[in-house]
Design goal:
174 residues; 6 helices
Length: 174
């Protein structure tokens, strides 16, 4: 989103007022400071919407990949039953079953996180107060998912922890 020269000037004055302290804010630049706050809120609102779209898109894509992975787990069952000579090694069968259980557990965990990511993204797009907290937690977890998740997690933390962002998420009595 490109800023107009007037919006850039307002942001400049806001940063100047923040650096110089309350004396400038209480003086003649107070109106400029308030206008700069409005511009900053609009910019952060746009970043929150971008983060919401990113959460929905990456969550949906990860969900599709995970569902394909579950199909691969079903193929592992057939590996045990279809050895060429019909013989089944008991140790290999146990190892394969253990490996299948561990992978299935990880897939289920990531599927839950993926669904939570999509739900958080929809909540961010609607500026729901619960989405703010959920997105903070999911952004921290995303840091562990190299490399794309780390980038999204850092962006999410920056957006959500920036000054004024939490005020966009007002609690509604519905």
């Amino acid at each position: 989103m490109e800023l107009t020269p007037e919006e850039r000037e307002q942001i400049y004055r806001q940063e100047k007022a923040r650096r110089e302290g309350p004396s400038t804010v209480l003086g003649r630049d107070h109106d400029d400071w308030a206008a700069a706050q409005e511009v900053r809120a609009r910019v952060m609102r746009t970043h929150v919407k971008i983060l919401g779209v990113m959460c929905v898109v990456t969550g949906a894509f990860a969900g599709i990949v995970l569902l394909a992975g579950f199909e691969g787990l079903a193929e592992m069952d057939q590996m045990i039953e279809t050895f060429p000579d019909g013989a089944v090694d008991p140790q290999a069968s146990q190892a394969l079953s253990l490996m299948q259980s561990v992978i299935a557990g990880w897939f289920k965990l990531w599927l839950v996180l993926t669904c939570a990511n999509v739900i958080a993204g929809v909540g961010l797009l609607r500026f729901k107060s619960w989405a703010y907290s959920l997105s903070l937690v999911l952004s921290c977890i995303a840091l562990l998912n190299l490399p794309l998740g780390t980038i999204i997690g850092i962006y999410g933390l920056w957006v959500l922890l920036s000054r004024g962002t939490s005020s966009l998420f007002v609690r509604q009595n519905t």
